[in-house]
Amino acid sequence: MIGLLARFFRGVNTAIGVSTLPKDATPAQEQKFVYVWLGIMAFILLWCALIVVWFTSS
After folding, report:
1. Is the pTM of this model over 0.70?
2. Cβ distance 41 to 49 under 8 Å?
3. pLDDT tens digits, one per residue of 7-49
């Protein structure tokens, strides 16, 4: 599962023009890479939810 997500996020990095993991990355490097991306996505979702709450609470 981590390998699949690492390939997906590697493609996202390539699409937005950011350097990415090499193809021969170790499983530990892939795991860290995926966890960083999941953290970024969680932060963005949390921030969007907070904005919705701010605008709908008044």
Report:
1. yes
2. no
3. 999 999 999 988 888 889 999 999 999 999 999 999 999 999 9
CB atoms within 10 A of CB 37: 17
Tokens standing for 55? 């605008």
d(CA 6, CA 30): 6
- State how far the Cα of 26 lies from the Cα of 43, in Å rounded to an integer: 26
| Structure-token pair, residue 24 | 């021969």
| Residue 39 identity (one-letter amino acid) | G
For tokens 């709450």, what's the residue?
53
Q: What is the mean pLDDT of residues 41-58?
A: 95
By C-alpha distance, which of 21, 43, 44, 41 is closest to 31?
21
